[in-house]
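Internal QA ticket QA-208
Title: Verify multi-chain structure generation after dependency bump
Assignee: T.L.

Test input:
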Amino acid sequence: MSNFQTKLSRRTVLRGLGVSLALPWLEATGTIAKAAVAAPTPTRMAFIFVPNGVNLEHWTPKSEGYGFALPATLEPLAPVKDDLLVLSGLTHDKGRANGDGAGDHARSASVFLTGSQPRKTDGEKIRSGISVDQMAAKAVGQRTRFSSLELGVDPGRMAGNCDSGYSCAYSSNISWSSESTPVGKEVNPRLVFERLFASGKPSEVDKSQQQRETLQKSVLDFIADDAKRLQSKLGRNDNRKLDEYLTGVREIERRVGTRTAKPVDVEVDYAIPDGIPGGYQEHMRMMCDLMVLAFQTDSTRIATMMFANAGDNKNYRMIGVPDGHHDLSHHQNDAEKLAKIAKINRFQVQQFSYLLQKMKSIREGDRTLLDNSMIVYGSGLSDGNRHNHDNLPILLAGSGGGTIETGRHVRYDLETPVCNLFMSMLDRMGVDTPFIGDSTGRLQGLSL
Amino acid sequence: MHLLLPKVQTFFAASTLAVWSICSALSFSADSFSADNVDAVAQQTLTKYCNDCHTGDKAEGGVRVDFLTGDGKLESHIELVDKIILVLKEQQMPPADAEQPEDADRVKTIEWIEQRLREFDCGTASRPGRVTMRRLNKTEYNNTVRDLTGLDLQLANDFPSDDVGNGFDNIGDVLSLPPILMEKYLNAANQIASAVVKDEAALSKVFPRKASDEKNLEEVVEVARENASRFAMRAFRRPLDTEESERLFNLMRVAWEANASKEEIIQATLTAVLASPHFLYRIEDDKPEDFVDGIRPLNDFELASRLSYFLWSSMPDERLFQLAGEKKLHTTEQLHAEVDRMLADSKSKSLVDNFAGQWLQLRDLEALSPDPVKFAAFDAKLRKSMRRETELLFANILKENRSILELLSADYSFVDSRLAKHYGIEGISGEEFQRVELNGKRRGMLMHGSILLLTSNPTRTSPVKRGKWVLENLLAEPPPPPPPNVPELGAAGVALGTLRQQMEQHRENPNCAVCHVKMDAVGFGLENFDAIGSWREADGSEKIDPSGTLPGGRKFNGPLDLVQILVEDKKTEFSRCVTTKMLTYALGRGLGVADRCTVSSIVNKLSEEEYRFATLVKSIVTSQPFTFQESGR
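Actual output:
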C-alpha cells in the first residue's frame, strides 16, 4: 500500500467513526480552541524502562552542571541536550536483596516505579507496591479519557521461570495499580491506536446512541452488581482479585460518563498501524509515536513504557551485536563485551531521543509538548555485571511546565532514593502524597 | 588457540545468570564433600549454626529448628520445614552478621532435609490448600468462547499477555485483571454478542428454544427468559439461583423498555453474561457455613470445571454438565471414566499445547534465534518442526496411554522431511509428520532438536544450561540460587584446552563443584549435539568426549548411555517431577510442603502401573487437593 493510500484510509476511518483527534489547547481556529488556550496546559509524565543496566563509563558525563560533554552513549541526545537532566547517584534500595537472595533483574523492574521490596514468590501472593504513575493516575487520571497508558515492546514470557523464584509478573511489568496488581502493558501498536481513537465518542448524539448508552449502562450495572454480590461469598485473596475487577468496571463507567468537549478536527498525519512491525527499532518508535499522540490529544497525561522486559536476552544483530543482551551484561569487565553493551545502550537512547525530538516539535501555546512533560528514562540496575541498584542511570527530560532547570548533569549523594525524584514529580502533577516507596523527601536541585 | 583468560571469562560470564555458579572464595574442607557423610554434615551444620538461637522454648522468633537434629517428627512441623529450606537456600539464615556455614555444607544440609521430607509419614491428616479464584487466561478464554457459542473468534489474542508463575500461565494468584483487560473483556463480550446474533447456527446454539407463536408475548417472554438462564448457566458453568435469573431477566426488560430490538436485547444479555465475573473467573464459593474444619469437598459443577480446564483448557461439555446435574461426577469410577473419555477427545490437544508447551518450555522456542552465520541451516520452519516433534511425542504417549518414561527413552519419533534431513534420517518426504523408528544416535526428547536448541546459547552449546534444564525440569532438583555475591573468576589463572577442560578446571574449586558436578555431567553427555541439535563428532578441531560420571559414581559413555541411566536410576525423581509440574498446572497454584504427600502417593501409584500417562492424570483428579477446597478466610 502506498503512503498516500495509507494516509487517506486513516482519515477516512477516523472521520467514518466520527472520531477526531481533539487538541483543545492548540492554536487552532474556533471558539473551543481559543477557550482552551486560556486554560493552563496540562503537565504530563512518562517513564521508560530499559533492562540489564548500562555501561556507566560511556553513560555518566565527566563534569557536572551546565555545559557537560555528552558521553558516547548519550550522544544521540544532542538535539535535546538542553531539555534534559542527567541524574547520577540515585538508588533503589528496595531493588537489593535485603535478605531475599538472587533475583536482581526481577526486582529491578518491579522496584523501578514502586520503590517497594517485591515479595519473593513464584506464584503465591505476588506483592509489590503502587507505582508512581498509578499514584498519579488515581489522583489526576480522571481528567482525561484514559487515566494512564501502559506500553511495551515485548510481551511477557510465556513459560518457564523468569528470575530466581520471582514470578514473571515482576519482570514484565513496571506499573502496579495496587500492591498486588501489575497493570499489564499493550505491545501491539494497532491495538493501542484503536483503543485511543477508534472507540472515541461519536460527535453526534442521536436517538439510537442514547439507546445504546442505556443498554451499555444496564450491562455495566449488571456486572458491577454481580461482583458486589459475590464479595460476601469469597475469602480474602479471592476478594482481592474481585477488587481488580470492580476497579476495571469503575474505570469504564467513568469513561462512559466523561463527555469530552466537542472535538476539534485537526489533521495529524499518522498512519493507522496494522500490527506489530517486524523490526525492533520500528516497533519502539511506533510505541513512542502513540505515546506522543496520546499526550497530544490529551487522551491521557500519564504513560509508562518498557523498551524490553527485565533480564531481556534478545540479540541486537541489527546493530552488529549478535549476542543476547542479558548474557552480555555479565561482562566480567571484558572490554569487547562492555563495548557491545554500550552499543546497545546507545541504540536505546537513540529511540528515546526520537521520542523527545518528536515531543519537542509539537507546540503547545508558548511552549512545546516536551516542555510540558517530565519523561524519566532509566534502568533499575546500574551495572549488569554487579547487579547493583545504586548510582542508577536515570535521565529526566522536559521541564515539567517550566519548573525544572534542564540542560545539566546533577550528581546526588549516594543512597539518595529514586523515589525522592518521584515525589518531586508528583508535586508537579498536583498529586499530594506523604511518601512513595522508600522516599525520604523531595529531590533537591531540579530547579535552581 | 585456547590460550585464554578472556575465553574463560567469556564462557562463564555468559552462563552466570542463567546458571548460577555457586562458587565462593571461602575455603573448603575436602572431607565434607563425600556422599556418605551427608547425614553427619547436616547434623553438624544445623547444630553449629542454627540450634544456638532456635532451640527450646526461648527460641529466637519463636522458631524452633532443633526438632530436625533431635527425635522430633517432621510431621508436626511440616509448614515450618518449608520455610527452613527457603531461608537456607536464600541464605537469609544464619543472619548476615553471624558465622556462616560453607556453601557446600549448606547445600548438603538442604539436601538432607529434603530427603527426610521425602521419607516422612503421610499418615497424618493433610490439607487440600486454597486455590485463589482463577481468571480465564487467554487460551481458556478463546476455547471457552468457542465451546460456548460455536464461534472460534480468538479475540483473546489481542488481550495483554498473562503473567507466568510457577512456570505456568494459569496460576490464580498471578493472573491479575488490570483495567485495560476489563476494557478488552467488555469489548470482546460486545463483539461476541454481535457475532452470535448475526450467525444463525451460533444463535441457535446459544438461544436454542424458539417461541411457537412470535406474537404471543407471554410465550416470547417465557422463552427468552429460559434461553437467557440456560446460556448463563453454561457460561457460569453452574446452575443459576432464582435471584440471578431474575436479575438477568430484569436486564432484558430494561432493554425492552428502551425500545431495543430483539437482537439488541439478546446482545445486551450476552454481553452482560460474558463480562460478568462469574464467566471471567472460575469461582469456588468460600462461604463459612459450607466448610467443616476449614475444608469442603467441591461440588460436582466445580469438579466439572476443574476437569475440563485441566484437560481441555475450556468449559465442561454437555456430558460433564449432565453428570454434575445428577451429582454423579465425583465418584472415583466416574472421574476415571471421564478422564479416559476426555483424553480421547481431540480437545485434549490443549494439554499438549499448554501443559507440555510450558513444562518443557517449548513455547520459548519462538523467541530463540541461533546465530545465522554459524547455523545457516536453521530457519523458522525448522524451529516449528522441532517443536512439533516434541508435541507429537507427548501427544502419542497421552493418546496411547504409554509410560511417561518414554518421553526420555522413546526409540521412535515424529518427523517431517525438513527435520528428517536435519537428523540425517533418510526416506522421509513431504511436510506431513510421520512416525519413524530411531535406531541410530537419538532417543527420547532430550535428543530432540527442540530441547537441544532451547538449552543452547545463540552461538554455541551450553553444557551447563542443558544440565540445569534437566535438573530443573526433569528431576525437580534445581540447583540452589546463587550466593549473594558471585565472585569474579578473573584470578583463576590461565586455562588451556577445550570448553570441557575449562569447565573441569573450574570445578576443581569444590564449592563450585557441589552443584556443577551434577549439571555439567549431563550437559557433557549431550555434547554430540550442537546448538541446533545436529549430530557432530567434533567441536571445531576438538573431538567431542561425551563420557562422564554422574554424582554417585555412575559412569556413562555418550547420550544413549546417559539416557539409559536416567530412565533406570532416576525414574522416581522423574515421575516426581512430572507429577509436581502437572499437579501445579491442574490446580493453578504452586505446591507447598503439605502437597508432598499427594505427590508421593501419585508417584507410588505410577510405579505400580507402569508409569502410564492416564494413571498420572487419574491420580491427580482424584487427589484431595483436586477434589477439595480449603477456606481462604
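Spot checks passed. Residues 1-38, 199-205, 259-266 of chain A have pLDDT under 50 and may be disordered.
Status: verified.
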